[in-house]
């Protein structure tokens, strides 16, 4: 995907981490993690129930996933982040270009996703591309990975497949390293590493 944003003009970043201020006043990291996990699980169940053959996976839909999952905890649920973020020495898209980057990605990719795929392989390709690029843009302050994994599952469910097995990635090790590398490759508009990973994790026919 060509971009006139200098691949989002990545500046010096700000590390994430720590306990984010939340509506419930939770200060324990484990308790906060459980509250987040419950929110994402409930959001996915709701969205599965509402999924139809005509569901459009556009920017508004992605923001709604995030809002449903985290609105019980965070004021920023469903809103683009206003801070720059990095993970280690890897910088995600600059905060000030996120609205434009998301709009461009919607126009160039999301709005062109077919409602019905002719092949399993083309679906895998699109899930990998969408997943890698959106994780690089990293539009939200927290919960990006879980939001995009729900989106990937919904793209799969819509075509009659089961969820994508991300457990090997969650366990760490080589699969986790490949997952991170797949996101980093998106900075060079190389989506094949993530597509290959999705291919391996995708449910069988």
Summarize the structure.
This protein has 205 residues and is an all-alpha fold.
Helix content: 40-55%
By CATH, the architecture is named Orthogonal Bundle
Strand content: under 5%
From the spread of the alpha carbons, the general shape counts as globular
Highest CATH level, the class: Mainly Alpha
Q: Give me the number of helical elements.
A: 8
CATH superfamily: Fido-like domain
> How far apart are the first and last residues' alpha carbons, in Å?
29 Å
**Low-confidence parts, pLDDT < 50 over ≥5 residues?**
1-16
Mean pLDDT: 91
Spatial sequence of strands, sheet with the most strands: 1-2
Number of domains: 1
Topology diagram in text:
Elements: H1 29-50, H2 59-70, E1 86-87, E2 90-91, H3 98-108, H4 120-137, H5 144-158, H6 167-170, H7 173-185, H8 192-201
Question: Could you walk me through the main structural features you see in this protein, from its secondary elements to its overall organization?
Answer:
It is a single chain. The protein is mostly helical and 205 residues long. Helix content is 51%, strand content 2%. The protein has helices spanning 29-50, 59-70, 98-108, 120-137, 144-158, 167-170, 173-185, 192-201; strands spanning 86-87, 90-91. A hairpin with a 2-residue loop joins strand 1 (86-87) and strand 2. Helix 4 crosses helix 8. It is globular and about 50 Å long.
């Amino acid at each position: 995907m060509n971009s006139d944003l200098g691949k989002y003009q990545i500046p010096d970043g700000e590390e994430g981490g720590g306990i984010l201020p939340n509506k419930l006043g939770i200060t324990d990291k484990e308790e906060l993690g459980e509250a987040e996990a419950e929110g994402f699980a409930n959001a996915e169940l709701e969205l599965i129930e509402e999924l139809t053959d005509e569901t459009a996976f556009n920017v508004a839909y992605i923001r709604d996933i995030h809002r449903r999952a985290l609105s019980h905890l965070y004021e920023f649920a469903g809103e683009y982040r206003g801070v720059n973020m990095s993970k280690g020495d890897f910088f995600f898209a600059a905060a000030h270009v996120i609205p434009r980057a998301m709009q461009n990605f919607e126009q160039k990719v999301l709005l062109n996703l077919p409602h019905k795929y002719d092949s399993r392989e083309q679906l895998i390709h699109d899930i990998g591309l969408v997943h890698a690029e959106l994780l690089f843009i990293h539009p939200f302050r927290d919960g990006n990975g879980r939001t995009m994994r729900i989106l990937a599952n919904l793209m799969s469910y819509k075509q009659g497949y089961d969820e994508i097995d991300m457990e090997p990635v969650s366990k760490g090790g080589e699969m986790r390293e490949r997952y991170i590398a797949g996101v980093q490759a998106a900075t060079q508009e190389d989506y094949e590493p993530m597509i290959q990973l999705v291919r391996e994790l995708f449910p069988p026919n």
